[in-house]
Each structure stands twice: as structure tokens, then as C-alpha cells.
Automatic annotation (TrEMBL):
Swiss-Prot/TrEMBL keywords: Lyase
One record GO biological process: fatty acid beta-oxidation
Species in which this protein is naturally found: Natrarchaeobaculum aegyptiacum
Pfam name, any one: ECH_1
InterPro entries: ClpP/crotonase-like_dom_sf, Enoyl-CoA_hyd/isom_CS, Enoyl-CoA_hydra/iso, Enoyl-CoA_hydra_C
Family per record: Belongs to the enoyl-CoA hydratase/isomerase family.
Gene Ontology MF, one: lyase activity
The name this protein goes by in its record: Enoyl-CoA hydratase
């Protein structure tokens, strides 16, 4: 389906693909793309999708913030504090929603992912890149500090020292360095990228969806908790999963030495 043409949503075999579709703007986070992403997440909430892929059309993942909106802000008469509050609302609505989304999310990064576009990738649960992907937290290049969750997401993934370096220098770097510092999980050759992404997605789709959603949520919450709280929350989640048909199927398949067929029940 088309979400105003700026964002496309396709669903097949429990895989949902959200495509940023303004390639002439390198899929920068325009209002249309931001609204389309939120609408796509609304559409998928509670669906039978087992994994969501976010990708960009036309050789770019996402080129960050919308410079046209920055120009409007400079030339307009809206006070800076009002613009800041509007930014907080918009980034919370999109990035806050994505970080805590119930269905596992995968960023398929084929081309530039810079500024807020890099954070869009980081807000997903897993990051897969082609060898032509490039990254950069380039807010300083337009005279800005950090937004879109950089200060929360980036140090959790690459560590505080590297996060400071990337933010202070605004360096643009390639997929090899991104993999080296842990910014992405895997880098694949460009001509094999789609095939490798599909193979990775199949690993998630073939798993028990209820159990994996709980596992994904627990890991996302883990750094915010004490060890004792983590143990208690894991036990509570297992209590829910113990009662699923998928758990019974998984145990029987193990005992019968066959692949389990999980149905999400």
C-alpha cells in the first residue's frame, strides 16, 4: 500500500517492508516521510507481521533532516523554544515509537544513512548494510547539536568514547568502519545485499513470534534495570510463553529431531 507515496508498505509471508520513497531527496526526513512512517507503524501494530524491514528507495537509506524545513525555521518568525518543542513532539512520535515497537525491526541500509537518517537505522533492532553504505552523525555541519535520539542510541551501541568522536567530528565513514565499531550487525556485498537480507529475515520469521517479541523487548529494557529486576521480568515473560502452542511445538520438534513450525499461538 502507498502512504501518500512518500512511504510504501508491502506485506508478504509475515515480512513487512517499509520503503522511504523520495529518492530525489535521498529520502531525507520530510514531513511526508515522517508521517508516512508513523502511519505504517500504526498499520502494522498488532498485525501478524513477524519482522519489519525499513529501507530506502533509489540508492539511499535516509539523508537525515529536511534542510528545507531548516531554512523555513531560519527565515520564519517562530521562536526557537517553540521550534524545539515541536521537534521534541515529532521525534518522540517517530523515534520513540520505533525504539519500543513490539515487532522486531531491521534497517536495510543500502547507501547513505546520515544525521537523523543514521538514527533511524539505530532505532531499529538490527542494522544490515551493503558495502556501499555510508554513515555520519553530521549535525555539526549545519550548526546543530544532536537530536533524533543520538545521545541515547549511539553510546549504547558504540560506547561513549566513539560516540563522542562521531558527534564532535561529524566524520562520514563507510560500512567497514560501521561494522568495526558495532554500528551495524553485518555488511554484505552490494550485488548480494537483497538476497542476504532476505536470508537474515527468514531466520526471524521462522522463529516463535510471541517468544521473540518478548525477548526483543527484554533486551531493549535491559540496560535500564537491575539484574534482579531483569530476572523477574524474564520469568514473567516465560510464564506467558510457557502457555503458548509454539512452546509445545518447539519442545516436540526438539524431541523428534525436526524443524519446528511456529504459528504464533
Amino acid at each position: 500500500m502507498s502512504l501518500g507515496d512518500a512511504v510504501l508498505l508491502e506485506r508478504e509471508d509475515h515480512v513487512a517492508r517499509i520503503t522511504l520513497n523520495q529518492p530525489d531527496r535521498k529520502n531525507a526526513l520530510s514531513s511526508a516521510i515522517s508521517d508516512g512512517l508513523i502511519e505504517a507503524l500504526d498499520e502494522l501494530e498488532g498485525s501478524d507481521a513477524r519482522v519489519i524491514v525499513i529501507q530506502g528507495a533509489g540508492g539511499a537509506f535516509c539523508a537525515g533532516g529536511d534542510v528545507e524545513r531548516m531554512v523555513e525555521g531560519i527565515e520564519g518568525d517562530t521562536p526557537a523554544d517553540e521550534r524545539a518543542r515541536a521537534l521534541e513532539r515529532s521525534t518522540t512520535e517517530l523515534f520513540g515509537r520505533l525504539v519500543r515497537f513490539t515487532i522486531p525491526t531491521v534497517a536495510a541500509i543500502d547507501g547513505p544513512a546520515v544525521g537523523a537518517g543514521a538514527n533511524l537505522a539505530l532505532a531499529c533492532d538490527v542494522q544490515l548494510a551493503s558495502d556501499r553504505a555510508v554513515f555520519g552523525f553530521v549535525f555539526r555541519q549545519v550548526g546543530l547539536s544532536l537530536d533524533a535520539g543520538t545521545s541515547y542510541l549511539l553510546p549504547r551501541v558504540v560506547g561513549e568514547n566513539v560516540a563522542r568522536e562521531l558527534a564532535l567530528t561529524g566524520d562520514i565513514f563507510g560500512a567497514d568502519r560501521a561494522e568495526e565499531i558495532g554500528l551495524v550487525n553485518h555488511v554484505y556485498p552490494e550485488d548480494e545485499f537483497d538476497e542476504e537480507v532476505d536470508a537474515f529475515l527468514e531466520k526471524i520469521v521462522s522463529g516463535p513470534p510471541i517468544a521473540l517479541r518478548h525477548a526483543n523487548r527484554l533486551i531493549g529494557e535491559g540496560l535500564e534495570k537491575s539484574f534482579e529486576q531483569a530476572l523477574a521480568d524474564e520469568a514473567y515473560a516465560q510464564g506467558i510463553v510457557f502457555d503458548t502452542d509454539d512452546h509445545e511445538e518447539g519442545v516436540r520438534a526438539f524431541l523428534e529431531d525436526r524443524d519446528a513450525e511456529f504459528e504464533g499461538r
